Fold this sequence. Notes:
Largest sheet: 4 strands, mixed
Oligomer: single chain
Radius of gyration: 14 Å
Order of helices and strands: HEEEHE
Structural class: alpha+beta
Amino acid sequence: NILNDMAKSRKNTKVTHGIIVNDLKINIYEMKRQYEVHVIFDCRDGDLAFEEKLDGTMDYLAEEGYFDNKKKVKVIGMTIKGNE
Length: 84
């Protein structure tokens, strides 16, 4: 079962939840060979500069020591569809 496999692979995963930077909510999962960064954002603003905001956020997190330079960083974005 896929859910059991995911649970096993994340068993020894260090998790940092609820980091807020540039109005983005971030959860970081540190795995053996990589980091998986989940970014949750509100898309109702139609923010055309989102890529720049995300790049700046990832640079900030790296500068603050959230990532080890030897591991890859995989970013997964999730939107919250706002009420219009």
